[in-house]
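New to this. Please check this record:
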Amino acid sequence: MEELYREHWPLVCGFLLRRTRDPHLAEDLAQETFVKATRALLGWRGESAAAWLLTIARNVLLDHVRRSRRELALPDADELGVPPLHVAALDVRDALERLPEQQRRLLTLVYFEGFSMVEVAAMTGRSHSSIKTAVWRARAAFADLYGEDA
């Protein structure tokens, strides 16, 4: 476990820091991630350690958000200056749904969930360059589908 900690601390802490934008909170959540990983070590099947730890870190972050969520009354969309849902947003969703599962998942991880390509590579056990290529191809396929709708 000590080796996993030394090798993957920067990846896990960096992942959490990008999402929380709070260095102290990111370190606390990273510590909690490694505590949970230590407890779950017997259940680890030996797949990619980085992917396993990032999954635990994501779950720790989600648990933290759920625990700290407060109910606030939201102002009307007009008060916030939020434009109404545009038809283009529905076209984007439709084009995304028509992509093959792997391409849709890659675009979702990178553009909606905010994972870097290095993190996606670690999660999938693929090389960074193969992920870059796959994301490029997924974007091209999406552009083709989206262009058909326009």
About this structure: The chain has a mean pLDDT of 81.
